[in-house]
User: Which sequence fits this backbone?
């Protein structure tokens, strides 16, 4: 899925874009292509657009519509929701909870997770490049297992590792004399809760980055490295001066995708002890929205929170894409 | 990059198909054909920790057919999804005719206008008088009755008889004895938790709140006020949580445990006592047969003796407003709640029947895993505040948030004030 997006953007910047531009310049001379010609791209796109409209557009429109309504149990049964204007949004943004708890949880978690995922993914990609074919297969295999593991299973594994009473970590720390005999419940403290969630999410998502970057690495011309070596560049310099600039589009895409995924992380938080609402300190935007809508039947408020999350994501993605394409143009 | 890209496309396509399939599947599973000419009645049953009930369903279907000539369609719904599914059924209008509905949800659904008023049917049938009062309360909203109690359960302390015998201990009869018991077990059985206190089991704390004279909320002139910050409730909660915090009866992990984790630790032999529902000893023994003759039960003692009020959980049977066969639905409910089918179910599922007469025989039972629970239920069964918004308090997890925060270091005063204010706000919401 990710590679598709990346290919499109890379191709769009280099190959596809100039063509329509040229065509457009030629077009006025011939004056008015037939209707069919003008419609052709849309006809070709019709099927995927229809799928997107059904799967994506309708739910989005519905959620936005819902976010302006009071929509609880009474309204569901009577079938008559009430429009309340911005009241749901006002409720979501008023008070400390969003600003002091939910938003920091969401944003800081995503920042650390993206940095961790891309960092670890890059290191593993470089490792793969340095390995022989057999070891490479072994490392890719191990990474893909982590990737293929469903989020639910992965979360339970991490919860089990950190089980406060009998988990591996407790035993290891007690064996090393770093933890008292009573142990410690990692899931009740906001920082340690999110540290475990970070481990889980980074472990789950680095293989995608590693494999994508490794694929990108194979396309970097070896001559560049040879020339750099002749000039006396060390590995560090070769990485920052050659690999990073050449693979910039790939880095941009894995970062954008990781950001989107890590912002809307839900399963990994919801399934941890205390993550489903008993510990209000650890909710993020996704879980909070779910709690409000599904557990508390305030569908309007839940929808408003979901819309806010989408807006934050769109803003971040827009900034990323702007930066990416501006740099492409300069080069 | 090529093969990878193709694989990506394939994966995307596959996932789209899966998505479509999932949506389709979801739609069909929640729908039902309720009113095919008045011949079919759809019934939702909750599925939880109780054993497989297919034999009972077969018997119910047969009896219903013989009695009315109509076909009974049984659909099982997981407890965890049930609230959500019922809400969706109300929204779509193609839900069941009759549904089992948790006692704490009944006022909520009744107030929202989703259930049929059954008051006149119940009073004309005369079954109202025999219903256990706490169950009757749970189905009453605004003076009208929207459901009939089907079965009920109550929590008590399940304990390891072998451990007690070995140390010469006896079940406690008041709170001081309970605390002493915990201390003794802690000292003499260091490998075992005396009594784990689960942070996410709100109804295990109820006997201590009620037992000290407190309550979750009180009503006066139609206005509800959260009462967990009363001195009595605070004293009860302090005693309960101090068992974990001061006397070491629990573990650090238990602060984030659910009720199922309590049972789990008991089954694995890690706990000497746990607060559990009366339907669970059967489950415990089936999971660990070596416990068969080693476990017993006693009601949670009152502060100064007697039995502390215990939360009486259970289920009502209710007719959904959208049902097209309300008469048939009522016939079915009366069959299920009185006579043969009701005791059959109670025996098979390990729950108690919903009528006082039927329950009395259980209280006189010689089974050490039945009588203590039945006694607690008969003498001290109590329901949560019957405000329609109590279901939302549960959804908000206000009580478990409070328990968990106390168990992880927040002071009782602060935690109860927060919880109490939240309850006041929720119960007086529209």
Assistant:
């Amino acid at each position: 899925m990710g590679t598709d997006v990346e290919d499109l953007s890379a191709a769009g910047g280099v190959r596809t874009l100039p063509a329509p531009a040229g065509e457009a310049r030629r077009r006025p001379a011939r004056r008015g292509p037939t209707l069919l010609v003008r419609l052709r791209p849309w006809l070709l796109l019709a099927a995927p657009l229809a799928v997107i409209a059904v799967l994506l557009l309708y739910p989005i429109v519905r959620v936005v519509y819902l976010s302006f309504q009071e929509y609880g149990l009474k309204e569901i049964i009577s079938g008559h929701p009430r429009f309340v204007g911005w009241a749901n949004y006002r409720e979501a943004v008023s008070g400390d909870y969003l600003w002091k708890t939910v938003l920091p949880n969401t944003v800081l978690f995503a920042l650390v997770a993206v940095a961790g995922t891309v960092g670890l993914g890059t290191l593993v990609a470089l490792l793969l490049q340095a390995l022989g074919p057999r070891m490479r297969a072994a490392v890719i295999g191990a990474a893909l297992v982590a990737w293929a593991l469903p989020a639910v299973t992965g979360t339970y594994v991490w919860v089990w590792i950190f089980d406060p009473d009998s988990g591996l970590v407790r035993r290891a720390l007690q064996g090393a004399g770093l933890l008292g005999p009573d142990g410690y419940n990692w899931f009740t403290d906001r920082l340690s809760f999110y540290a475990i969630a970070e481990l889980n999410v980074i472990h789950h998502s680095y293989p995608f980055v590693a494999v994508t970057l490794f694929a990108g690495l194979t396309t970097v011309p070896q001559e560049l490295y040879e020339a750099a070596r002749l000039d006396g560049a060390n590995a560090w310099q070769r990485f920052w001066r050659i690999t990073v600039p050449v693979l910039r589009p790939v880095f941009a895409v894995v970062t954008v995708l990781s950001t989107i995924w890590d912002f809307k992380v839900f399963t990994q938080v919801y399934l941890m002890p205390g993550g489903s609402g008993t510990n209000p300190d650890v909710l993020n935007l996704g879980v909070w929205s779910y709690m409000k809508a599904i557990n508390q039947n305030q569908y309007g408020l839940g929808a408003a929170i979901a819309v806010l999350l989408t807006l934050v994501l769109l803003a971040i993605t827009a900034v990323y894409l702007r930066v990416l394409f501006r740099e492409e143009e300069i080069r | 990059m090529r093969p990878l890209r193709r694989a990506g496309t394939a994966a995307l396509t596959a996932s789209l198909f899966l998505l479509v399939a999932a949506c389709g599947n979801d739609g069909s599973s929640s729908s039902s054909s309720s009113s095919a000419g008045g011949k079919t009645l759809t019934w939702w049953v909750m599925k939880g920790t109780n054993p497989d009930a297919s034999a009972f369903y077969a018997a119910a279907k047969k009896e219903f057919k013989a009695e009315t000539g109509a076909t009974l369609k049984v659909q099982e719904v997981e407890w965890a999804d049930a609230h959500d599914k019922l809400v969706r059924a109300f929204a779509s209008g193609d839900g069941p005719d009759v549904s089992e509905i948790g006692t704490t949800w009944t006022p909520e659904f009744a107030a929202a206008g989703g259930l049929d008023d059954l008051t006149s049917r119940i009073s004309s049938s005369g079954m109202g008088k025999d219903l256990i009062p706490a169950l009757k309360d749970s189905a009453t909203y605004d003076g009208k009755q929207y459901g009939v109690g089907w079965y009920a359960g109550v929590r008590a302390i399940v304990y390891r008889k072998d451990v007690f015998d070995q140390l010469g201990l006896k079940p406690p009869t008041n709170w001081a004895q309970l605390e002493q018991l915990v201390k003794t077990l802690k000292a003499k059985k260091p490998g075992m938790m005396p009594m784990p206190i689960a942070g996410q089991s709100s109804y295990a704390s109820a006997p201590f709140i009620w037992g000290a004279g407190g309550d979750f909320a009180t009503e006066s002139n139609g206005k509800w006020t959260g009462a967990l910050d009363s001195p009595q409730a605070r004293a009860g909660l302090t005693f309960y949580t101090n068992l974990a915090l001061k006397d070491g009866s629990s573990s650090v992990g238990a602060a984030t445990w659910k009720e199922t984790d309590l049972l789990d630790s008991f089954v694995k032999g890690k706990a000497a006592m746990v607060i559990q529902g009366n339907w669970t000893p059967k489950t415990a023994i089936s999971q660990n047969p070596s416990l068969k003759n080693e476990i017993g039960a006693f009601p949670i003692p009152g502060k100064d003796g007697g039995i502390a009020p215990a939360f009486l959980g259970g289920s009502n049977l209710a007719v959904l407003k959208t049902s097209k066969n309300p008469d048939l639905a009522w016939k079915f409910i009366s069959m299920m709640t009185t006579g043969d089918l009701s005791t059959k179910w109670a025996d098979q599922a390990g729950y108690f029947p919903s009528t006082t007469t039927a329950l009395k025989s259980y209280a006189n039972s010689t089974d050490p895993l039945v009588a203590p629970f039945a006694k607690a239920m008969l003498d001290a069964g109590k329901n949560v505040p019957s405000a329609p918004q109590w279901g939302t308090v549960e959804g908000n997890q206000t009580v478990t948030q409070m328990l968990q925060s106390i168990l992880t270091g927040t002071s009782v005063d602060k935690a109860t004030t927060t919880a109490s204010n939240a309850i006041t706000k929720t119960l007086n919401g529209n």
